[in-house]
Amino acid sequence: MKCNYIGDAWVGSSNASRNLNPSDLNDVVGEYAAADATQAADAISAAYGAFSGWSLSTPQQRFDALDFVGSELLARKAELGDLLAREEGKILPEAIAEVARAGQIFKFFAGEALRIQGERLASVRSGVDVEITREPVGVIAIITPWNFPIAIPAWKIAPALAYGNCVVFKPAEPVPGSAWALAEILSRSGLPAGVFNLVMGRGSEVGQALLNDRRVAAVSFTGSAATGMRVAQACAARMARFQLEMGGKNPLVILDDADLKVAVDIAVQGSFFSTGQRCTASSRIIVTDAIHDRFVKATVTAMARLRVGDARAAGTDIGPVADAGQLEQDLTYIDVAQREGATVAFGGTLLHREAPGLYLQPTLLTNATNAMRSSREEIFGPVASVIRVRDYDQALAVANDTDFGLTAGICTTSLKHAMHFKRNAQAGMVMVNVPTAGVDYHVPFGGRKGSSFGPREQGRHAQEFYTVVKTAYTSA
Ligand code: ADP
Asked: For residues 303, 304, 308 and 313, what is the CA-based torsion angle, rounded to 10 degrees?
């Protein structure tokens, strides 16, 4: 059994959770100790005790630890990518790329630790200096989802440590393997005991214990909107800082003047790769009249070529759905959409492969409207709806008519429409002729409206959440 990491000790539990391979439910990836609320409290105590020392650590100490982790992730990307693909169902090339991305993120924040800046201004009073500095926040609870089992933990843990905070990390229940592997590397990175802690376990018990503990100064959360609301309420009740990344219902607009091949590639990549299990996935494909039928036909042809199968088999394009509950949700939405009047243009059914896995055919719904539940609520699977519109103006209005606002994409060869869309799409990230999913790691990530709350993640903007500002006045 793989254990939790509390202080500098690996701590077992009488409860173990079994980690299943969604490509083959007979394959048990491993057994992981399920922490309870007491162990969560122990992890917080360890982090709280370590904070006074680590908050004063030198930039070099932080650089060395983060750089060590980044180098090891990059060196072991094939091995850890295989583990990630096995436990989450992401295809091997995507899984290896995700581990490499985690390594790059640690390297980026290693560098940021050396570049923490302040400001010095002349006071409006004579003989006084004013300095503005950034200090660490304290103990940060990091609560992550299953869809990016190593990249999302990396983009929260690395800045938390770079800016001098201590961390209690709670990964999602279905993917303890990648989290444990990352923790094991961190345990050898030279961080003082207690600076980083891992508690695997149920959200309702371990996660909730982190939200309620007064010693946790801040919570960085990525997951569902419903849990995000719980995080917000618990943190607001005790005035803790919080940052939420939640769902998306991302529009991809295809205009008449788009390059058809580019549009189809972008739609298929953004909607169905990673089994559609990305908060940045395209889920509403908004297509203008004159290109609509050609686009649907070409997209269906492209989808028919996608190979759905074991995430680790050579040649697979789309892996399984990550867990049984998610598969049930996908099927329910496909059914609801049809009852609301949408047509299944491709897919919609379970697929059987040699091994018992959670295989769903990528699904394209046509004749959809923006009012349908399937167009308003996040599905989080390989399912996208095509919504037909008259022209650009209607496309933009439909794109913005949503409770979410993470990414918004457009395929067009018109500079005028591209520029207008960039300025007027109500989303945190706008994509012109590139898929709505797939981002860089050195620039801000985050959304608007119901998608996100709090400062942006990633790039140097991450410092907004992971530091507090101090203004100091000095007179000799
Ligand atoms: P998903 O649909 O991606 O599983 P969730 O919001 O259920 O989204 O889960 C995201 C993370 O939030 C997971 O690590 C989960 O264990 C955790 N979580 C779930 N419920 C709670 C809770 N009440 N308090 C804190 N964390 C929770």
From this structure: -110
The CA distance from 3 to 58, in Å, is: 30
Please give all residues whose beta carbon lies within 6 A of any atom in ligand 1, as ranges: 143-146, 170, 172-173, 203-204, 207-208, 211, 223-224, 227, 230
3-class secondary-structure state, position 101: helix
Burial class (CB in 10 A: 0-12, 13-18, 19+), 37: middle
138-196 pLDDT, tens digit each:
999 999 999 999 999 999 999 999 999 999 999 999 999 999 999 999 999 999 999 99
**C-alpha pair distances (Å), 130 with each of 118, 136, 470, 473, 474:** 11, 20, 10, 5, 7
Residue 94 a catalytic site member: no
235 is catalytic: no
E-strand ranges in 13-170 read: 16-21, 24-33, 119-122, 128-136, 139-143, 166-170
pTM over 0.90: yes
Class of domain 250-432: alpha beta
Q: What distance in angstroms lies between residue 227's CA and the mean position of ligand 1's atoms?
A: 6
Numbered ranges of CATH 3.40.309.10 in the chain: 250-432
Sequence-distant (≥ 6) Cβ neighbours of residue 56 within 8 angstroms: 164
- Alpha-helical regions (H) of 273-348: 289-304, 324-339
Q: How far apart are the first and last CA of the chain?
A: 60
Identify the residue whose C-alpha is closest to ligand 1 atom 7: 224
CATH number given to 4-246+442-475: 3.40.605.10
Q: For a ligand 1 pocket test, name from 219, 227, 280, 380 the mutation site with the most ligand atoms within 8 angstroms of its C-beta.
A: 227
Q: Which residue ranges does the chain devote to CATH 3.40.605.10?
A: 4-246+442-475
Spacing, Cα 435 to ligand 1 middle (Å): 27
Is residue 443 classed as helix, strand or coil in its secondary structure? coil
Render pLDDT for 6-26 as a digit per residue (tens, 0 to 9).
999 999 999 998 899 999 999
d(CA 389, CA 275): 27
